[in-house]
Design goal:
Layout lengths: L3 H8 L8 E6 L3 H13 L4 E6 L2 H8 L9 E5 L7 H9 L9 E5 L4 H9 L4 E4 L4 H16 L8 H4 E2 L4 H4 L1
Length: 169
């Protein structure tokens, strides 16, 4: 027999998914808006906080008044503190090291990808050339996240780009 609390929770509806709490670190305001619009278009319930550089990301993550996000997206190239340095500091911090970190870059160079993997990124996304490509990439990222694949990245799924997304589905 279900108690009233459980039935109330199940009556709330299976369609209501708790929004994913995301911090996006990207110095380009247009890219921040594109990211948010693509999440909306992908029907991914989310609560996005955008910051402009790696230092602001770390300040936000270390703020005890704020809960840790479910995931961070980090642009590789930013002023003040770049994405690689921010990732290194996140992975060396006992309280932050388990937060899934997705690196974003226009580069698809193998050395950049290998560098992100070796420094503890969970996923590396080459920024797409189209809005549709961004929507498809975010859908893939969150299907991996919800399947818990991001907590132990597989090399096959580590690098996503608009060109290889259809090959992996």
């Amino acid at each position: 027999m279900m108690n009233s609390k459980n039935s109330a929770e199940s009556a709330k509806g299976l369609n209501e998914i708790e929004p994913v709490k995301i911090i996006l670190a990207d110095d380009d305001k247009d890219d921040q808006e594109l990211f948010k619009d693509a999440l909306d278009a992908a029907d991914i319930p989310s609560d996005v906080t955008a910051v402009d550089n790696g230092q602001q990301l770390l300040d936000r993550l270390k703020d005890d008044a704020e809960p840790n996000p479910d995931m961070v997206f980090i642009d590789v190239n930013m002023p003040v503190k770049g994405g690689r340095q921010a990732l290194n500091e996140i992975r060396s911090d006992e309280k932050l090291k388990d937060i899934p970190a997705v690196m974003l870059s226009t580069s698809g160079h193998p050395q950049d990808i290998e560098d992100a993997l070796s420094h503890g990124a969970d996923l590396y996304i080459q920024k797409p050339n189209s809005f549709t490509g961004f929507v498809l990439l975010l859908k893939k990222v969150f299907s991996l996240h919800w399947a818990k694949t991001l907590t132990n990245p597989l090399k096959d799924f580590f690098f996503l780009s608009e060109n290889n997304i259809s090959k992996k589905d």
